[in-house]
Amino acid sequence: MVLSDRDSLMRKEEWNKAVDVVRREFAALPDIFPQKIGALAAAIKKQKRALYEMTISVEGEMVCELCKGGCCETGAYHFTVVDLLVYLSDGRELFSPCFAGDRCPYLGHGGCMMGPEYRPFNCITFHCEHLEKLLPDSEVEAFYAVEKLLRGHYSEMETLFGNTFAHGLLSNYERSYPAKGTILFA
Ligand code: SF4
Ligand code: SF4
Q1: Cβ contacts of residue 65 below 8 Å, gap of 6+?
Q2: 186 residues of the chain, pLDDT tens digit each
Q3: How many CA atoms lie within 13 A of 98 on its CB side?
Q4: How far apart are CA 102 and CA 66, in angstroms?
Q5: Given the CA of residue 64, which atom of ligand 1 is nearest to it?
Q6: Considering Cα of 85, then 86, then 87, then 89, what sign does the dihedral take?
Q7: Ligand lying nearest the CA atom of residue 64
Q8: How would you label 94-122 residue by residue, b for 16+ Cβ within 10 Å and e otherwise?
Q9: What residues have CB less than 8 Å from 136, skipping those under 6 apart?
């Protein structure tokens, strides 16, 4: 769906506010939280790297380049609080999404604005039928084993805050912040 100029600006404002709120809440967390978030972030990045390497080992990235991100059309809600926490935990500069147009707001001219270790769960674990055909059966099994571990770490991050983050950062902001003044905690 193409947003009007006004709606895409409003969406960008919402994004900026959501990021600011999580950044502030993260900075105010007691010491035990950053330690746990850091350990989970390291495991999440390791597993995403492993999934990405399985894909490139069968030249999946080339297939994606040729396809020009056919599956990257509806990604606005793919980026979650967990993904933002990994950026914050690493002290890494965040990309600047663009909500105009009909593509994923995180898709830049050179592909996804996030490196493979930072890409949302839905994206790094997605294999369309083209990619699925490239992987031998044993690798498909290994891929889904790592995906299961990764899902477990996302779930541990949710448990840490007693919240659910699967519907995306923007959704957590919309449904939680105006009423409760927090995004991280349910
Ligand atoms: S995963 Fe499939 S649909 Fe998505 S960019 Fe790659 S080849 Fe295209
Ligand atoms: S976040 Fe990146 S990989 Fe996911 S849909 Fe958007 S551009 Fe594609």
Answers
A1: 111
A2: 778 888 899 999 999 999 999 999 999 999 999 999 999 999 999 999 999 999 988 887 788 878 877 888 778 899 999 999 999 999 999 999 999 988 899 999 888 999 999 999 999 999 888 888 888 888 899 999 999 999 999 999 999 999 999 999 999 999 999 999 999 998
A3: 9
A4: 19
A5: 6
A6: positive
A7: 1
A8: ebebbbeeebbbbbeeeebbbebbbbbbb
A9: none
Query: Is the CB of residue 78 less than 8 Å from the CB of residue 122?
Result: yes
Contacts of 23 (CB under 8 A, 6+ apart): 88
Which helix (H) or strand (E) segment is 19 a member of? helix 5-27
Best residue for ligand 2 mutational test, from 94, 106, 131, 170 (most atoms within 8 Å of Cβ): 106
- What single letter denotes the amino acid at residue 150? L
